[in-house]
């Protein structure tokens, strides 16, 4: 078994349609539960630390390992280090890794639902050109989706567009300000009182 397979099995669960996988794993991906964060820490904290230290570069030599490496840099820190600055510690490392894999066509070797967790790295960037790329990539996923999964991938595109609008307006995600010790502007404070402003 490849060293990244237990992570991918945990993250995506059993094989199935994108709709089935999302139904089974949405709570893990977006649920923000302490028990899930602690499970992520217990199972994968050592790998996250290796990824952050640049010790897993060989994983990116094939698509599944590349995807797992991206998840270790982007998704797992957001769970293990939730509400601390280290939640975003892998972002700057994940972006060039994503770029390199896209150039090699690694994303096209993944299933559509797996590709979501590559493209989310651009969606998480406080950078407007990268936000535009995220929207472009999620729009392409929607265009390729079959009828049964169009609603699902339309939802992912909608979230990408919402992230893009926030960066276009503020140049950063205001909901990160407190965690990162950044002062909020009055406009950002007003925005953070709106429903859905914190994703």
TrEMBL record:
Pfam families: DUF924. InterPro entries: DUF924 (IPR010323), TPR-like_helical_dom_sf (IPR011990). This is DUF924 domain-containing protein. It comes from Ectopseudomonas hydrolytica.
């Amino acid at each position: 078994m490849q060293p990244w397979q237990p992570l991918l099995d945990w993250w995506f669960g059993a094989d199935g349609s994108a709709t089935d996988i999302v139904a089974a794993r949405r709570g893990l991906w977006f649920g923000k539960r302490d028990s899930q964060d602690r499970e992520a820490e217990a199972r994968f904290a050592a790998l996250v630390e290796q990824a952050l230290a640049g010790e897993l570069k060989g994983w990116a030599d094939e698509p599944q390992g590349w995807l797992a490496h991206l998840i270790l840099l982007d998704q797992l820190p957001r769970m293990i280090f939730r509400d601390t600055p280290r939640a975003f510690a892998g972002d700057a490392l994940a972006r060039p890794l994503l770029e390199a894999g896209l150039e090699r066509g690694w994303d096209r070797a993944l299933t559509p639902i797996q590709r979501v967790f590559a493209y989310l790295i651009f969606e998480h960037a406080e950078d407007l050109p990268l936000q535009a790329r995220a929207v472009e990539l999620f729009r392409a996923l929607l265009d390729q989706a079959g009828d049964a999964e169009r609603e699902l991938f339309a939802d992912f595109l909608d979230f990408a567009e919402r992230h893009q609008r926030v960066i276009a307006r503020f140049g950063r995600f205001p909901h990160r300000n407190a965690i990162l010790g950044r002062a909020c502007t009055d406009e950002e404070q007003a925005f953070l009182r709106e429903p859905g402003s914190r994703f």
